[in-house]
């Protein structure tokens, strides 16, 4: 049965929107201001030394979908950055028929059955424990919960076994994230070695699961489909890099939005249409702030001529802004829909898994909120991180803070 639509509290302000801006500025103090200024007047604009900034949702969708003119590979692209660390064939650094072929091989990696199984085994125990603590009146830091769930889920996908490995996985994720800034165009040899060492925990687990070739594990299924060991090791690292930071950033930000819209503190009010909450929460938070393309053939975008090899900075977070703040009852314009997961041939492969993880966690928070009311008791923005996020966002029965 579909639950009733969740409506904002009539007196709700756009405090959630202000927190979102604060998170972006805390993560990228200088760049965020430069971008805000640059796109305030023109949503598609050239900034010398940076590239063409694209904050208009239709133009962003065109760049991501038009593979005849815009590529993931080549000088200055994120694909080029990751190739020395991950190898040549990890989706996010591929284009064209080879990319499409590999995506087809991976198509059932995140089928509804597999997503359910992975979430049941990896996420549910952690989510159930958090619910118990909330029901016992203890505060829960949902930023921490989301990191643990995201790591447990990807850990299971790549073939890790237990909690100790999870801590190592989170260290590796932080370690690699700290190597990349807005200015990073290439890694030097020492950085490549460092990143490879950090990823060894993921890749060794993937290798063992691939060798066992059991259809109980995602890596085993890849082996059964003929994906080579080398390719599976690379893909495991790519899934890890794309799947941990994004989900850990999204959940606490969505919970923050719910609280700021007045949807957690009224017992009984939060019997939500969870799909609408997650979609609107992802629009508000758009954890992959930016993605890059290279203009592979001269073209025109929004009235601006682009040269071959020009860098295009697709500002996903800026392209998904709407006035009025978080509102699960709204339907965003078509060009914006799912743009938080990208568009076109590189559309997020892990979207079904990400949504299932977010449903499990946000659903639990809303359920407890419906029983007893919840408030944000503490929150701090993380400073100078690649993926904007809360360092802490605790919810509990205490006084709002
Ligand atoms: C809320 C969570 C997530 C968000 C917002 C997100 C966002 C995105 C975006 C915007 C892209 C496209 C990038 C581009 O076109 O340049 C992408 C691609 C990708 N995502 Fe996600 N993602 C999330 C979670 C995940 C998870 C959990 C996984 C894996 C388990 C994952 C795996 C991937 C992969 C492999 C690609 C590359 C696909 C390709 O290049 O063909 N993502 N994601």
TrEMBL record:
Question: Pfam families in the record, alphabetically?
Answer: p450
Question: What name appears for this protein in its UniProt entry?
Answer: Cytochrome P450
- Taxonomic lineage per UniProt? Bacteria, Bacillati, Actinomycetota, Actinomycetes, Micrococcales
Q: Which PROSITE patterns match?
A: CYTOCHROME_P450
Q: Which InterPro entries match?
A: Cyt_P450 (IPR001128), Cyt_P450_B (IPR002397), Cyt_P450_CS (IPR017972), Cyt_P450_sf (IPR036396)
Q: Family per UniProt?
A: Belongs to the cytochrome P450 family.
Q: Which UniProt keywords apply?
A: Heme, Iron, Metal-binding, Monooxygenase, Oxidoreductase
SUPFAM superfamilies from the xrefs? Cytochrome P450
Q: Name one GO molecular function term.
A: oxidoreductase activity, acting on paired donors, with incorporation or reduction of molecular oxygen
